[in-house]
Amino acid sequence: MPELPEVETVRLGLAPVMEGARFLKVEARRPDLRWPLPRDFVKRLEGKSVTGLGRRAKYLLADLSSGEVLLMHLGMSGSFRVATDGKDRVQGEYHHPRSEDRAHDHIVFHMSSGARVTFNDPRRFGFMKLVPRGSLDDEKMLSALGPEPLGNAFDAAMLARACRGRKTSLKAALSDQRVVAGLGNIYVCEALHRARLSPRRRASTLAQRSGAPSEKAERLVQAIKDVLHDAIRAGGSSLRDHRRTDGELGDFQHNFRVYDHEGAACVTPDCRGVVRRIVQTGRSTFFCPVCQV
DNA sequence: CCGCGGGCCTGAGAGC
DNA sequence: TGCTCTCAGGCCCGCG
């Protein structure tokens, strides 16, 4: 469930203890994640340092002094815990394990900064992968990604172009990482509500007949950027016991306007609508059928 | 090429 | 209280 804001929150939490630090020791306790770790995973990390920690969509990318990149994904339930001075701090996760639950601590980094960084992932949808920097472009998972929603290149014209001719719903289009990279179910629902656009609308209707972006596309792009910025500022969302940097609870979930609010009064000013839940392509969609058209 | 749906995986919560 | 069932959804892949 970590989406772009949660992954960015994790990146901000890990950067201070990983950037510029060396892997003194790496423990691969459970190598069968979403995809199995390479046999030499530990060897390729130990002794190398992290020259930078970046993010692309929901992926974390650690640049290594060896010329490789450590690609990390939290999947649905992944988290990182940082321990300094023996105190554990959670760097973002979905299902937060109770403090005594270490059964799902799959990978541990002992960094030269003195920090111990532990990757925990009960459902093992997350993964790590080592890729030579030069062949990063060959990674299908990365090369197929659409624009970063917070980047300058992502604008109404680009979104309209990506949705052009698409018969699928706007909800499905925004969930497609090739259209825009980093949104998941929650932020798609939230952005559509802020833009007052129905998730059931055909994606192709974001473009005018001429192919030019509609005013709806402008509204939607702004709504996407706004909701992501707001969520990052709040330290991400905490569903169930998800925690954020510093072990504090991220609190953006209190700002959800429709997600998980089935039956609640719509918060759009002067709207008398009630939030509904429907299922689209097997996923829950929350929206207001009155103001979202 | 496009869209849809299954599979992966575990824990939380509902219902009996 | 304890069992069973459903749901959560990011990503890949195969099918029509």
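The longest helix of chain A spans residues 215-233.
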